[in-house]
Amino acid sequence: MAKLQGARAQTTLLFTAPQSVADILTAHRSRHGPLPYPWILSVTSARQVFEKAGDLSRGVAVTQIMPNPASRVVPLAREFQDVLDKAGVSDNRTYEAVEGFVTAKVVVEGLLACGANPSRELFISKLEAFGKREFGGLRVHYDRNRHSGPDYVEIAMIGNGGRIIS
């Protein structure tokens, strides 16, 4: 903490697990005051950070690789909500769930491209021939040399009560 404070950082990148983020926020606050503009990655669950750090997590910025699941503007998020509504599911409307939703769409497209006799090898070759596609405003790109999918990045923030603001 002393090194961090001595660096007079303008922002702090916390690319670690939720418990570690909570521990750092707590330790820094107790010794030096609020951590300067902390950021976490989307793989660090903002919900879990809030559960572990409480109000200390308010203001933590989160880089998200999917659109806000509550958005009514982004067609993909609207479709996600509509599917959950139709299924009677009222919880798990999270960024992680949207990522799973998109992953399922890509997997289904890959399997459909395999035809009646899918195999591991055929599935891989179909995904590597996937190219660029759009799912409700979210562009994904898979090919032989690129297996990462979307290029999307959105900045969100943990707000009061752990609510995500984007």
Give the helix/strand class. Answer: alpha/beta
- Count every helix, treating DSSP H or I runs of 4 or more residues as helices: 6
How would the global form be characterised? Answer: elongated
Average the pLDDT over all residues and give the rounded result. Answer: 92
What is the radius of gyration? 19 Å
Fraction of helical residues: 40-55%
Query: Which residues form runs of ≥5 with pLDDT under 50?
Result: none
Largest sheet: 5 strands, mixed
What multimeric state do the chains show? single chain
The overall number of domains is 2
Number of extended strands: 8
Indicate the proportion of strand residues.
15-25%
Spatially, the strands of the biggest sheet line up as 1-2-3-7-8
User: Topology as H/E string?
Assistant: HEHEHEHHHEEEEE
Intertermini distance:
29 Å
Topology, please?
Elements: H1 2-6, E1 12-13, H2 18-32, E2 38-41, H3 46-53, E3 61-64, H4 75-87, H5 95-114, H6 120-128, E4 131-135, E5 138-143, E6 146-150, E7 154-158, E8 164-165
Parallel strand pairs: 1-2, 2-3
Antiparallel strand pairs: 3-7, 4-5, 5-6, 7-8
Helix pairs in contact: 2-3, 5-6
Protein name: Leucine-binding protein domain-containing protein
Organism: Cupriavidus pinatubonensis
InterPro entries: Peripla_BP_I
